[in-house]
Amino acid sequence: MSYYKILGFEKEPFSTSPDPEFLYLAQGHQATMTNVLIELRLRRGLSVVLGDVGTGKTTLSRKLIQALRERGDFIVHYVLDPCFETEYEFLYSLVRNFSINMDSYGGAGPEGGRASVLDLKEAVEKFLYEKTVIGNKTVVLIVDEAQKLSDSAMEMLRTILNYETNDTKLLQLVLFGQLELHAKITKIPNFMDRISFKYTLNPLSLSETREMIQFRIKQANYCSNARLFQEDAIEMIHKISQGYPRKITMLCHRALKQLVMKRKWAVDEEVVGEIVSEDMRAGWLTPTTHH
């Protein structure tokens, strides 16, 4: 029997999988979600969301995709690991993943041979025009881990952002990336001024950490009215995690497993302290890490 069922949950409350149903929308996440959706509806072109490792970018991107797919007027493609070495690789991935039929947009290349970069660019542009202007759909490309984009892929994105009518961009682009993406963007002429919305996600405050823990417990259908995490435990979790959602999630998961092993029914400072001591003995934490 799963540890979380022993404690009275229907689902695992602190899984690290990026499940949109378990995303607690802290103030920064909510602001990002709302603003990006507005930018997409207005077809403003480019939104950039930055954040350190573990601030919730991937889960937020999945939440955004879920929201868009619930509407019938968005065509969405999601790139999880954008390691494209050449312009050709990047454009070919767009053609494949947007299911663009090359024959419908001028053929696969001279005499049916391999399409050139120019052929692929023309096919993408015609596809975007057809879907956006004629079909009145909004085409969205969401890129996670965008700091991994090569210079040639970034340059290609800049080119595609030039595809527009008098009043609308043909492709809506949302980049989620670690903080080094900012430096990459600033190196490309005319890319920075194309950003319609930009935001940097920060770690959670103590009150947001408390709300996140309670939210995930509720989402997992906890069947008891008992207070599962004592206030002193929450304060310690916030201090150790420094407010990073992924670290909060992992600490809470380990704390619940400790409850089952120790046959206790509430996480207190002692339970969290044991986890910290264990990590310090194993060399995962230094005495300064949790001060």
Major β-sheet, in short? 5 strands, parallel
* CATH domain class of the largest domain: Alpha Beta
CATH superfamily of the largest domain: P-loop containing nucleotide triphosphate hydrolases
Per CATH, the architecture of the largest domain is 3-Layer(aba) Sandwich
Shape designation = elongated
- Please tally the helical runs, counting DSSP H or I stretches of 4 or more residues: 11
Quick check: average pLDDT? 90
Write down how many β-strands occur, each being a DSSP E stretch of 2 or more residues: 5
Strand content: 5-15%
How much helical structure, as a percent, in the residues?
A: 40-55%
Q: Give the spatial strand order of the biggest sheet.
A: 2-3-4-1-5
